[in-house]
Amino acid sequence: MAKHIELGAAGEALAARELSRLGYRLVDANVRMRMGELDIIAEEDGEMVVVEVRTRTIGRMLPPEATVGPSKIRKLVRTGTAYMDRIGWEGPWRIDIAAITVGPDGKPALEIFRDITVGIIEP
Prior knowledge:
- The protein has 123 residues and is an alpha+beta fold.
- The protein has a single domain, classed as Trna Endonuclease, Chain: A, domain 1.
- 30% of the residues lie in helices and 37% in strands.
- It contains two helices and five strands, in the order αβββαββ.
- A five-stranded mixed beta sheet has the order 1-2-3-4-5, sandwiched between helices.
- The N and C termini lie far apart (35 Å).
């Protein structure tokens, strides 16, 4: 397996563990739909959450959260909307980013950016 694929898979596993520890209830993962893929679907306090996981090593040009640009956000909104329609979810939902940075010592640091569409796009 390519190194970047392994890094991404490890990042998604770490994000899932940490989200569970923080009280999110994991619902689904790696959901492939016609318009895109959703990394993690979780529920927190009655709200569904689409979590985009980004993992980078230190030394890259951009931190992981900065790699989610406007076109990716639009794609997440479209795909998230289709997913919520597919499961019949009528409640509130949002998009979070789980940004993981792996340091030179190999230790990952995770930061959650909640509700990244506020003020940009309402799902």
